[in-house]
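Exercise 7b. Backbone tokens:
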């Protein structure tokens, strides 16, 4: 595509967002390919990104929506309004959060369809299958503008999946998922396999591959994650207890923030781990790379949360692999697509702390194993996590969507 091509509108839940730097990389890479983009953030975010304004949905726009736009469309487009109300009344949402996410997307479409009618993009692409895809779905129904959507771990698994997921995916020009496990999940639920494209995220520039630290004592461990249930912190702290009890010298830095912060602070005191484990809080992405330079091993203790939510392939895993940080991961969801046992990393059950102890003792002392895993991990990233190569695949999807 050339710079003079018509516009593609990109819809995000929140953009830019510190914990979703992979979406920022996607936008920058698409921009570098010459696509003409309009950016919309449905909740928070806004401002400017890479020279492009980010239009932020102002919730005050909902006032005229309810007072004027919905009543008017009851006469103008009664079928769409009726379908929406039937969809709300005939099937319970999986959670109140997902209900409001879909209502947010519907509200955005109701408030912005006149702007899209005046200056229509050739395609609307929703970064997520929740609120952004609901907006794209309704803009298609109102204006006939084609849309495509992402469908990632949160959309698929949280409380059993998004409320209107299958309806939205059935009408999308294409569906972008970033893992093979996500693709299998969608096919099993009847989504047309031909429209699902596995396109991984990627790094625009690969970091320097640091040398193996010759004396890994104490062993430097890092976890980069939001402090939420699906990251398995209760199990992770039991692993640290096992390391301490076995006399393995180690230091841990946990980078991230979230609703479990106060609880984890208390747990560190209760378990007497404050000398070994430091909660670093949320850090800018550039500082995360600095922390990876410090670390010997990245730990990922992902689990299936009580809500059903789980990770796909957290971006920090291939980032660590690219930098030369060894990875030990639980075998949940798509993590083993990158962390392949005894090839690119080590895999252990989070409910077996002694298995993690054995794995980490090996990485602390076995230089031959460490170098073999690090080298193969970097090779996997270069083959699978190149943003420029993966963006070409996404651009090809856009081109096909525009000329079906």
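Sequence design result:
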């Amino acid at each position: 595509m050339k710079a003079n091509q018509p516009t593609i509108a990109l819809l995000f839940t929140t953009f830019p967002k510190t914990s979703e730097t992979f979406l920022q990389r996607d936008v920058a890479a698409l921009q570098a390919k010459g696509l003409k983009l309009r950016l919309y953030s449905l909740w928070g975010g806004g401002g400017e990104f890479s020279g492009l304004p980010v239009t932020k949905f102002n919730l005050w726009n909902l006032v005229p929506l309810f007072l004027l736009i919905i009543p008017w469309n009851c006469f103008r487009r009664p079928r769409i309004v009726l379908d929406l109300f039937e969809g709300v009344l005939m099937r319970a949402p999986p959670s109140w959060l997902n209900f409001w996410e879909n209502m947010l997307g519907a509200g955005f479409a109701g408030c912005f369809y006149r702007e899209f009618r005046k200056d229509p993009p050739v395609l609307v692409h929703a970064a997520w299958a929740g609120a952004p895809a609901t907006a794209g779905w309704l803009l298609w129904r109102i204006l006939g503008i084609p849309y495509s959507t992402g469908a990632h771990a949160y959309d698929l698994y949280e409380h059993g999946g998004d409320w209107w997921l299958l309806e939205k995916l059935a009408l999308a020009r294409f569906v972008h998922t970033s893992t093979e496990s996500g693709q299998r999940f969608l096919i099993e639920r009847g989504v047309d396999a031909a429209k699902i494209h596995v396109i991984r995220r990627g790094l625009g520039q690969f970091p320097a591959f640091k040398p193996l630290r010759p004396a890994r004592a104490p062993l430097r461990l890092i976890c980069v994650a939001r402090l939420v249930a699906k990251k398995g912190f209760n199990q992770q702290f039991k692993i640290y207890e096992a390391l301490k009890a076995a006399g393995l010298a180690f230091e841990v830095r946990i980078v991230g923030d979230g609703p479990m912060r106060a609880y984890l602070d208390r747990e560190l005191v209760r378990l007497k781990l404050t000398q070994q484990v430091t909660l670093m809080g949320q850090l800018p992405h550039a500082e995360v790379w600095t922390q990876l330079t410090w670390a010997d091993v990245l730990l990922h203790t992902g689990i299936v949360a009580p809500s059903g939510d789980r990770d796909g392939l957290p971006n920090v895993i291939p980032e660590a692999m690219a930098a030369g940080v060894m990875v030990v991961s639980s075998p949940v969801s798509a993590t083993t697509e990158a962390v392949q046992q005894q090839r690119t990393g080590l895999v252990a059950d989070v409910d077996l702390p002694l298995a993690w102890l054995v794995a980490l003792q090996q990485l602390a002392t076995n230089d031959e194993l460490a170098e073999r895993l690090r080298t193969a991990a970097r090779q996997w990233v270069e083959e699978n996590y190149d943003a420029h190569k993966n963006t070409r695949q996404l651009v090809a999807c856009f081109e096909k969507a525009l000329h079906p």
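Instructor comment: The mean pLDDT is 89. The first strand starts at residue 7 and ends at 12.
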